[in-house]
Amino acid sequence: MDPAQDPNQPSGGMPDAPDRNTMEQIRLRRLAKLGTASPKPEDSSSASSPKLAASPSSEQDQARQKKATDTPKRPITITPAAATATTTTTSTTTRDVSSSNQAAASSSSPSLDDSSNKRAAARIDDRAQGTQPANKKPYVGQEESLLDWTDRVLSGTFRFTLDPERLVDAQGHKLTFLPNSSSEVAEAGSPAKLNEELLDSAILEAATLRPHNTSLLKYLLSCWKRITRVLGQQPKDGSAEEKRKILEEAKRLCMSYSLFSLTMPDLFGRPEPEDLVPCLLRGYDHEDSLPMDWTKEAIDRFPEDDQVKFAFADAMASISQKLAGLTMEDDFRACLNAMVFYTRFPALLQAVSSHPRFLTEGGAPDLENDTILGPFFRLSPLQQQVALTYFPNPRQLDRSRVAQSQDAMRTVLRLHQDELFNLANAFIRAGADTRNVMLNWFALGVNLNHKRRAMQVDAREVSSDGFMVNLTVVLDRFCSPFMDTTFSKISRIEVEYFRRQPRVAIKDETKLNADQATSDDFYAKTDDKPSNFISEVFFLTLAAHHYGSGATNSKLKALERDIKFYEKHIASMEAERHKVANIPTQLAIFEVSLKRHTDVLEKAIASKNAIEGVFLDEKMQELSLRFMRYVAVWLLRLASQSDYTPDKDLKLPLPSPPPEAFSCLPEYALQDVVDNFKFVYRHLPQIMPSAVGNEMIALCIAFLQSSEFIKNPYLKSSLVTLLFNGTWPFMHFKKGVLGDQLFGYKFANDHLLHALIKFYIEAESTGAHTQFYDKFNIRYEIFQVIKCVWGNDVYKDQLTRESKVNRQFFVQFVNLLLNDATYVLDEALTKFPKIHTLQAELDHSTGMSAQDRQKKLEELQALEGQAGSYMQLANETLSMMKLFTSALGEAFTMPEIVQRLASMLNYNLETLAGPKMGQLKVNNPQKYHFQPRVLLSDLVEIYLNLGSSQTFVDAVAADGRSYKPETFDKAGYILAKRGMKDEADLRQFDVLQRKFKEAKEVADQAELDLGEIPADFEDPILGDLMRDPVVLPSQHVVDRSTIVQHLLSDPKDPFTRQPMTIDDVVPDTELKAKIDAWKAERIAAAKSKADAEQMDTSEG
């Protein structure tokens, strides 16, 4: 039994009742806080019914106390029921209170819907209520006076009495006897019954009598709920006006004292104020929960007493602090429901947003753990302990079990993120000040987490992955309303945002195309206009993707590396177990070390599964892609200085120079778009057809063709990767998600090939220390994109046009193509003889030591890896040459490149079909992508594609190092024997071989005719006879074809290493005339000699 309701409670369990004078002084000192009371009879004493002031001074308090003690008390006048015209006759049964205990008033519960309010009402009383049989007529007794009614209702509501003999009400509830109030009534000579004038002091006395270890707020809330129900049952037609006034005053006083319990504990002799937290954490249908109507009335008191507002804000801060120690595996719903309850009242959100703990001056961990909203956003299945719950014993889980856990995890997280968005949205809509504070909180989330993109991340200095992913998803949701398919609101995103005191900090970020000094100068020119909400959310979301989901996504690669390392390390440890198996002390140490490494491995696997599970959420990624499409279109509009949308044409090249506003943007503005689409292409291609539009193709092509707009070569190369990923076949998309668009989209038809060739050339020199190897990966992806679209003849026509209109550009491209083919073929084919030797040695390694064998195995593995990579690149390079020479053979026989092309083909043909071809034989050649017969067939096809050009035939025959007629014969024999070419191709190849032989004979004869070449006529670099001598800026003379070939690979003077172009050379016409005259003279002399010998022969 509650001791507060037991009048017989021993004195040790209940505080002593204060004397009347002390209670009067306390009450008068705080009376002004109660608000304006109902009108009282004129003869009422000032002690029992004072007129309330808004904020009395201390002098007023003292005056009132003096008046209360000096003025003699008047008898309390009770008007008999018969003399009261407005008295309502009711049964003397206590049906008012008993029926109220069964009714369901809407104010009895803080539930967010009416149905839960109704459920809550029946649980308020301390005991179950009986119901009267329907067929039994109610007993009708004598009329009840207003005084009796008042005493009965107030006693039943507040559970106290002035009559020491009546300690239980009609329903059996125990009543607390109020000795001071009872004495006051007795001194006045009035009946020991409660009335409106006594209620104020009676409530205070009852509240003061309650033991300090019980909740005063709980008692007062229960009283408020009961009085509210009784009030709701009164007729509203004016027939019970007196009763309504009494009930209204009782409700007002109860409300005031319940608030005083939160703000002025000394009023009740208590050391600490009451705590709202337990009531807020109760379920909506719990009897101790905060009623909605009570909360509304409390909010109405905010202007009168700031302490009430602070009490609500402090309560939520305490709930947040409690939540900070919980995870998704704990019972966190009560804390979340409390915040959801606050969202129904904008004034509460305003109070919370003004709390000192809403924002923080600390670091990222403080934001997550110590701010009010931080712990709500912190909840996530990405928390380490939660991930291990979803993926127990992760090393033993099969993929189906992992997939099931990931599905369950996504469902839970999606619901939580919906609630987080609703919370944040309520703050945004609660008012301008609250919206600004909420945006500031989001800004702290991104600004304090820049270190999440560092090479080495210290988890103690940044927010958790779960927190940042939730932050990103919620911001994505805020962008959703303005991300329509027609891009109608994209003009609302303000270019000048970063010059208007932006919330997002970008000073230390790498810019798209500006150094730090340029960027600082640009942003130093500020704009005082405020940014609109769309711009604020847009740039916050862009930053959140970079520091939030983007950083978490990049963590996957690190986890994969860690997992491989620990698996290998644990395997090596297990292999060493036998060494300590018989030594107990060392075995124990070994087991502890093994357990530690195993735990780290399992945590890494669980984290990887959890991150993959979160990021494979199709709905999350669809919303993210919608945002990235908007970013892509906005970037193109800014770079092109136009109103571009996907349904409009984009003019290329982009206008130069790039706008400063574009150049000074953070690099992640474009990187986020590329990374997001690359991830979805790789892992969720099924959502791409409905999510991607022409804007992504336009973005890639525009910045590849106008590559000067972007400074970072890796970022530019990622645009190629994006196109490459878009051509991967999947499902019924044989050309991938973008393949069909690239094939038929007019913008792509007009600009794609030029953009790819341009970047193919630029990839030769990226400026990075790994540029030599990076270029091969870039060019491999370019080949794949070209192969995907080559079936459209428009691209073949584009290649022809490039060779004619941009001759130098095209020659540079072909030269680099030849360089690549020469290098990768040589690197790949020279590895196979070494692999062949090592494999033979290992197959016959009977007497080889274990150490030597291990050394050779490691060497073999390294060679195999290199051979496989180079061979794959070689296959793709030759494939491109086949396509291009088939479509545009004459372009590959230009004087600048034809000799190099012929030499490259002859050298590799000699390797594949020459005397040393047997050294290429290795075990399992498919392992290295090595198919020698296919490779030989591709080389011969290139010969056939170019065989109609006499220039090419002469170049092949003039290759003194590698041209050998017997090698061509052997190649034809192999192709015929293996069926690699049809009869027509073989006949054509035979004809071509004869042409080579004839050209060789002519070349040899010409060399004999010329004889020794004068030193002045020789090219100083190649040693050949110059045909078109030119003077370099260094004044050295070389042949034009020599310097052209040199400049294709190295734009510097070969003698002084100073930059130069082909336009810097000057024809040496005088020397050319001498060479031509000398040649004519030598040829004429040789012809005369031949004629003379022929005459001698005929005469003989």
Automatic annotation (TrEMBL):
It is found in: Cytoplasm; Nucleus. InterPro entries: Ub_conjug_fac_E4_core (IPR019474), UBE4 (IPR045132), Ubox_domain (IPR003613), Znf_RING/FYVE/PHD (IPR013083). Residues 44-59, 75-114 have a biased composition (Low complexity). SMART domains: Ubox. Pathway: Protein modification; protein ubiquitination. Its main location: cytoplasm. One of its GO terms (molecular function) is peptidyl-prolyl cis-trans isomerase activity. It comes from Sodiomyces alkalinus (strain CBS 110278 / VKM F-3762 / F11) (Alkaliphilic filamentous fungus). It comes from the Eukaryota. It catalyses: S-ubiquitinyl-[E2 ubiquitin-conjugating enzyme]-L-cysteine + [acceptor protein]-L-lysine = [E2 ubiquitin-conjugating enzyme]-L-cysteine + N(6)-ubiquitinyl-[acceptor protein]-L-lysine. Residues 1012-1085 form the U-box domain. GO terms for biological process: ERAD pathway; protein polyubiquitination; ubiquitin-dependent protein catabolic process. Residues 61-73 have a biased composition (Basic and acidic residues). This is Ubiquitin conjugation factor E4. Belongs to the ubiquitin conjugation factor E4 family. Keywords: Cytoplasm, Isomerase, Nucleus, Rotamase, Transferase, Ubl conjugation pathway. Residues 1-11 have a biased composition (Polar residues). GO terms for cellular component: cytoplasm; nucleus; ubiquitin ligase complex.
